[in-house]
């Protein structure tokens, strides 16, 4: 596994756990392809609004931070909140 991918997964996990009321329910999976990586973020249903934010602002901010980290590795990263 690529070290940078692991760091992005940890980054998403740290951000999500800081935002939610139930940090134990936060699960982050990553699916690595050749040129892209999908990071799936699962949270408790009652915490969904906290990671998405008003009009998706927090979700967009998480994606922006991860995309900035991914740019260094020439990878395309997609963060899905499910």
Task: Write up this protein.
By secondary structure, this protein is an alpha+beta fold. Helices cover 45% and strands 23% of the residues. Strands 1-2-3 form a three-stranded mixed beta sheet. A hairpin with a 3-residue loop joins β1 and β2. The model has no long low-confidence stretch (mean pLDDT 90). Pfam families: KH_KhpA-B.
Described by strand count, sense and barrel closure, the largest sheet is: 3 strands, mixed
Approximately what portion of the residues adopt beta-strand conformation? 15-25%
Spatial order of the strands in the main sheet?
A: 1-2-3
> Would you tell me which CATH topology applies?
GMP Synthetase, Chain A, domain 3
Q: Please count the helical segments.
A: 3
Order of helices and strands: HEEHHE
Radius of gyration: 12 Å
Kindly state the percentage of residues in helix: 40-55%
Question: Average pLDDT value?
Answer: 90
Main location: cytoplasm
Keywords: Cell shape, Cell wall biogenesis/degradation, Chaperone, Cytoplasm, RNA-binding
InterPro entries: KH_dom-like_a/b, KH_sf_prok-type, KhpA
Protein name: RNA-binding protein KhpA
């Amino acid at each position: 596994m690529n070290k940078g991918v692991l760091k992005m997964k940890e980054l998403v996990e740290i951000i999500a756990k800081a935002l939610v009321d139930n940090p134990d329910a936060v699960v982050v999976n990553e699916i690595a392809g050749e040129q892209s990586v999908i990071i799936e973020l699962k949270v408790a249903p009652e915490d969904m609004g906290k990671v998405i934010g008003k009009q998706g602002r927090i979700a967009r901010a998480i994606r922006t931070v991860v995309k900035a980290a991914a740019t260094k590795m020439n990878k395309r990263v997609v963060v899905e909140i499910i």
